[in-house]
């Protein structure tokens, strides 16, 4: 069995959303490009992941895509940045499908462009490899399931249920962090040229299909609302240090 290493795994970053909930405080740029100190959020995210050895990032862009494209054309980064532009919004799964021609690795990592999942990504990759997963999702304990996907595991850590944005107040809730390590077989499940949600339309179909959960997440930082953005700015200062 070959040993997976971050340098051999493409990272698909979903950053094409409209950012409506953040629009009141971030009007001149797409959400992933919000200022965090002297940096922009996306740079912090990519540098954090590059610190584990990831070296090729595919940015799935749509809303205010020129802003992101110009930023990475003019900014020299110590890793490769590839732009996958959506001519129309295609949802989280549709964006991944649209980027298919750029995805070279199998498996590939997916993360959202408006959050940072703090964990040991080497451990995450090893869990995928050692457990012979097809799909692996990073999970975090949270009382809030209204804004995230609630996940249920069986005794062996397999995902047997995925329910997006439901009300469930429990200290034992496991939510999706939006970070996945996916076999390229998933690309054959996602329909082409249509809007499609990976959370609502794809993951529920994969429950039980060697789809595993990974719960060793240290922290989950989300900038999706003005309130979370302010909390994130404080937390991300530690990430920058």
Write the layout of secondary structure elements.
Blueprint: E1 11-14, E2 35-36, E3 39-40, H1 41-50, E4 56-61, H2 65-74, E5 80-85, H3 91-98, E6 108-112, E7 115-119, H4 121-130, E8 135-141, E9 149-153, E10 159-164, E11 174-182, H5 198-206, E12 211-214, E13 217-222, H6 226-240
Parallel strand pairs: 1-4, 1-6, 4-5, 8-12
Antiparallel strand pairs: 2-3, 6-11, 7-13, 8-11, 9-10, 9-11
Helix pairs in contact: 3-5
Describe the structure.
With 241 residues, the chain is of the alpha/beta class. 26% of the residues lie in helices and 28% in strands. The chain has six helices and 13 strands. It has helices at residues 41-50, 65-74, 91-98, 121-130, 198-206, 226-240, and strands at residues 11-14, 35-36, 39-40, 56-61, 80-85, 108-112, 115-119, 135-141, 149-153, 159-164, 174-182, 211-214, 217-222. The strands form three sheets. Strands 1, 4, 5, 6, 8, 9, 10, 11 and 12 form a nine-stranded mixed β-sheet that branches. A two-stranded antiparallel ribbon has the order 2-3. A two-stranded antiparallel ribbon has the order 7-13. A hairpin with a 5-residue loop joins strand 9 (149-153) and strand 10. Helix 3 (91-98) packs across helix 5. The radius of gyration is 17 Å and the shape is globular. The N and C termini lie far apart (37 Å). The relative contact order is 0.19. The model has no long low-confidence stretch (mean pLDDT 87).
In short:
By secondary structure, the chain is an alpha/beta fold. 26% of the residues lie in helices and 28% in strands. The protein is globular and about 45 Å long.
